[in-house]
Sequence to fold (177 residues):
Amino acid sequence: MDELVVSTVVCLPPDEVYDFLTEFPRYADYSEHLREVHAHGDGSPGTRYDLEFAWWKLTYTARSEVTATSPPTRIDWRLVDGLDAGGRWRIDPLDDVPPEVPDDAGAASRVFLEVEYDPDSVGTGTVDLPRFVSLDRVVSKVRPLVRSEAERVVSRVVTDLEGRSRDVALRIHRTPD
Fold:
């Protein structure tokens, strides 16, 4: 399994961040490759989402499910068909506001996006490939894309959460090989 963990500081307490992150259909606004999200539930465990991705000449609908929640600190999910992947949003309260946080921030949290996936789980029939395009080539191109997409999503979420744009310091904890 490959793993990607990205985090940043958000100038809000964990409960406000958690409430924002449970509104999963909004994620299409943050991702360059996620076109649309269809929710089947209220965000609690058992809620399923159809995520419509498009990249290059490929389109793919991933189906995810919320597997567990622990308000206001954690939302776990997994893909339910096709690719072997899962992850979580984790929100840790910060007692000491770091120096990169604006002076007028009353509270702060460190927000983590953690993703685990098996690139070898992409097989024939999982994704429709254009003729003469090898699966190995696509997987090699997608691997770095996952990291840049995670960074973009976290950065855009922070801007929306705080209601203003600022330089967001992303910390990369683990990346795929």
Summary: The helical segments are 14-21, 135-162. The chain has two helices and eight strands. The chain has a mean pLDDT of 80.
